[in-house]
From TrEMBL:
It holds the Pfam family RibD_C. It comes from Kribbella hippodromi. It comes from the Bacteria. This is Dihydrofolate reductase family protein. Residues 3-170 form the Bacterial bifunctional deaminase-reductase C-terminal domain.
């Protein structure tokens, strides 16, 4: 099975959105360079960010998100974002009324079941877990292999926390760092038995 990676852009003080679920400048780095990151013509980043991000994005097979993110994005109109093949939505509710069951989305109750379904679908590819409450639950369940953060030079003060409501201390390996334009990419492997009692 592929790795389970918790990922998001994040403020210096650890938030993935403000109190109103708005990302503010967290994604500005995706338009701050001159190297096209995808075929949209919109996303352009520095060469360093391109090499780091494109290599990672190309490994992702499935993304796991919470129902809140799914609802906020209107389910991406049934098309998984950024070339991802499938999205697993952690939810206690069924798919929305009128949702086309042939779309590459699965609705699963509980993070353990969601990660298992995502790994089954992804095979050897990466399972990406969106940071926030669901990501924090997956981390707390001991199912995250790696944490990736695109740290943006902004301070929010309050908002939606990268690790959700994780209460336990977790030890990470030393970071791998890549400096981009308006972003610092950090990658941490989790240490075996990373939870500190």
């Amino acid at each position: 099975m592929g790795k389970v990676v918790m990922y998001s852009s994040v403020s210096v003080d650890g938030f993935i959105a403000d109190e109103n679920d708005q990302p503010g400048p967290l994604f500005d780095w995706l338009t701050s360079g001159d190297v096209a990151l995808d075929d949209s013509g919109i996303l352009k980043v520095s060469r360093a960010s391109y090499e780091y991000t494109r290599a990672y994005w190309d490994q992702i097979g499935v993304t796991v998100v919470g129902r809140h993110v799914f609802d906020m994005t209107d389910g991406w109109d049934g098309k998984p974002p950024a070339g991802v093949e499938h999205v697993v939505v952690v939810t206690h509710r069924p798919a929305p009324d009128g949702w086309d069951p042939s779309t590459p989305f699965s609705f699963v109750d509980g993070v353990e079941a969601a990660v298992a379904k995502a790994q089954e679908l992804a095979g050897e590819r990466v399972v990406e877990v969106a940071a926030g409450d669901v990501g924090g639950q997956v981390l707390a369940a001991g199912l995250v292999d790696e944490v990736r953060m695109d740290v943006v030079p902004v301070i929010f003060g309050t908002g939606k926390r990268y690790f959700g409501s994780v209460a336990a201390q977790h030890l990470l390996q030393d970071p791998i760092t890549i400096q981009g334009t308006r972003v610092l990419h950090l990658r941490y492997e989790l240490r075996p038995s990373s939870v500190v009692e």
